[in-house]
Design a protein that fits this description.
With about 100 residues, the protein is mostly helical. It has helices at about 15-25, 35-45, 55-75, 85-95; strands at about 5-10, 45-50. The chain folds into two domains: about 1-55, no CATH class; about 55-95, no CATH class. The protein has four helices and two strands; from the N terminus they run E-H-H-E-H-H. It has a two-stranded antiparallel sheet with strand order 1-2. It is flat, with a radius of gyration of 23 Å.
Length: about 100
């Protein structure tokens, strides 16, 4: 989707690990933590050797689909056609009655 290689985090608990890094920043250097999230990342995080490399053919198809999505979004979501607003109003009216 992005066309960029994806490196795999060294932990299976990425969310919890990220929270721990932010806690170390919140604690600050005086309490044994870090001054910035960048410093905490350099000191605490690591990456596995594995990585996912992009598939150019799949990215080309994704880019084509995303271009269509953007056109639909602009058409239905930005006033080109107010069908979504009319459908929401209809839903409100039906649920109210």
């Amino acid at each position: 989707m992005t066309g960029r290689p994806i490196k795999v985090a060294g932990t299976k608990q990425g969310g919890a690990f990220g929270s721990a890094m932010y806690a170390a920043v919140a604690a600050g250097e005086a309490a044994g933590g870090y001054a910035t999230i960048q410093e905490a990342t350099r000191k605490m995080a690591w990456l596995r050797d594995e990585q996912y490399t992009p598939n150019p053919a799949a990215k080309a198809i994704y880019d084509e689909l995303f271009a269509e999505y953007k056109q639909l979004h602009d058409y239905f979501g930005r006033g080109g056609n107010n069908v979504m607003k009319r459908l929401k109003a209809l839903k409100v009216r039906v649920l109210r009655d």
